[in-house]
Design brief:
By secondary structure, the chain is of the alpha/beta class. The protein is built from six helices and seven strands. The chain has a seven-stranded mixed sheet with strand order 3-2-1-4-6-5-7, sandwiched between helices. A hairpin with a 5-residue loop joins strand 5 and strand 6. Helix 1 runs antiparallel to helix 6. It starts with 6 loop residues before the first strand and ends with a helix.
């Protein structure tokens, strides 16, 4: 069955290059291990968006596909593009603008730092009738943003990479006269403590019988970290 042309789901990911991904996990893990772990994050995230109901899948990479990791992704039914913009806000804004220009009515962006994120949260964002949907992250940012209208005001003047991203975005939204839905709180994995939490969480999920945790859990089961 053809994917719904009205909906687009975009995964934002970094090109997996040694020493250039998840640098905050060092020195708890060596660069080789971090690189392998991040590729697991990306592979699990790719599988996640493939499971989304009624949406076309896109992967926006930064800075480019120098590693070759994403070669052949179109054969999986996904469209690959390079993120354009000077900061994360610019890059997300441009991704939304381009998808709307292509005719999509609802567009969702997630990052590759939440390998345990339930697919149901993405489906919930797509099903929302609000202009903007945000998935609040425990670090003060958000793990998901979705739009059904051009609410570009939310991207300007935000201090990206800080714990104030969500608060600043919500303030911007007040002046945009747009409706908002907030998803359940989830978490990104950036620091060694985040990774410990993820490891514990995936084990609990597996014990509950809900899922096996994907490639990330398999890899974490094979390594030891402090």
């Amino acid at each position: 069955m053809d994917k719904n042309k009205d909906n687009a789901v975009i995964l934002f990911a970094r090109d997996p290059i040694l020493g250039q991904v998840k640098t905050r996990l060092s020195p708890s893990l060596d660069d080789e291990t971090i690189l392998k772990l991040y590729t697991c994050f990306v592979e699990d995230s790719l599988e996640k968006i493939r499971q989304v109901d009624n949406a076309k899948c896109f992967v926006g990479i930064s800075p480019d596909n120098h590693s070759g990791f994403f070669e052949g992704i179109e054969s999986l039914g996904m469209n690959l593009f390079t993120q354009q913009g000077k900061d994360l806000g610019d890059k997300m804004r441009q991704a939304f603008v381009d998808r709307f220009a292509e005719g999509y009515k609802k567009v969702v962006i997630i990052g590759s730092d939440s390998p345990s994120l339930p697919v149901s949260y993405i489906n919930k964002a797509l099903a929302s009738e609000k202009d903007l949907v945000l998935g609040p992250s425990t670090d003060g940012g958000y793990y998901l943003i979705a739009m059904s209208g051009k609410v570009s005001e939310v991207f300007s003047g935000v201090a990206w990479g800080t714990k104030h991203v969500l608060d600043e975005t919500l303030k911007k939204l007040k002046g945009a006269r747009a409706s908002l839905e907030l998803l359940p709180i989830w978490y990104d994995v950036d620091s060694p403590d985040d990774l410990k939490f993820l490891n514990t969480h995936l084990k609990l999920i597996a014990h509950s019988g809900l899922c096996v945790g994907g490639k990330t859990k398999i890899f974490l089961d094979e390594i030891s970290f402090e």
